[in-house]
Amino acid sequence: MIKKSFLAACFFSLLFFVSCGSDDNNVSTLSVDEQNTADDMAILNFLNNYYFDDLGKVTKFSDTITPDDKEPLSKNAQKSTSGYWIVKNPKADQGINTDNIADGKNNILIHYSLQYFVAGEGGNGYTTLNTSSSTIDNSGVAQENPFFYKKPKNDTIQNENYYVIRGIVDGLKDFKPTNKSKNELYNVLQGLIIVPSRLAYGRESNYINSKDATFILNFELYKVCSQDQTCN
Hints:
Layout: E1 2-4, E2 16-19, H1 32-49, E3 50-52, E4 58-60, E5 77-80, E6 85-88, E7 107-121, E8 130-134, H2 135-139, E9 143-144, H3 166-172, E10 191-195, E11 213-225
Antiparallel strand pairs: 1-5, 2-7, 3-4, 5-6, 6-10, 7-8, 7-9, 7-11, 10-11
């Protein structure tokens, strides 16, 4: 069950850093418990320092756009009992009722940007987030079954956990599809899912090749189709 969580300003006093290099962050310097704590603190900081722009893209506050101008993500953030977060964009179409849900078995069509950071103790906050993959910034076309949602059928060597981010799959169950076709443009992104490293790949090998990474999926869920149906 997901509970509403309004994040108080006191979280701003928590000090930590987010390391945003790519593969050079794969050497773990924290214990697992320390990493989990750093992840949770980093997520709280992110939720307080970012907002949805007019297109629903997650954007950092600046000198010209402050929390007085836009609501921080923390205003609408909900944390699951397992530890991932969802934030629904109050200005976006939240979809239609359907018999199918995005459960990792059904097929999906999704327009998205997947970013990540590696959190550590100490330091002074965020720099640029790494982008793992993005249909919004690259092809401009929604994608069926990205690897973080479903393992590719042609890989007979790696197991599902090498690809699938379980926290994202669980978070998608809370969103309804907008019933758009593949080539339709998004109007306003529906929201985002934030998954701490312990609910993603942790320190296991993965196709993104980044350990201890917290993932942020900013998206619109276009369609959810049955397993035997192509989403387009």
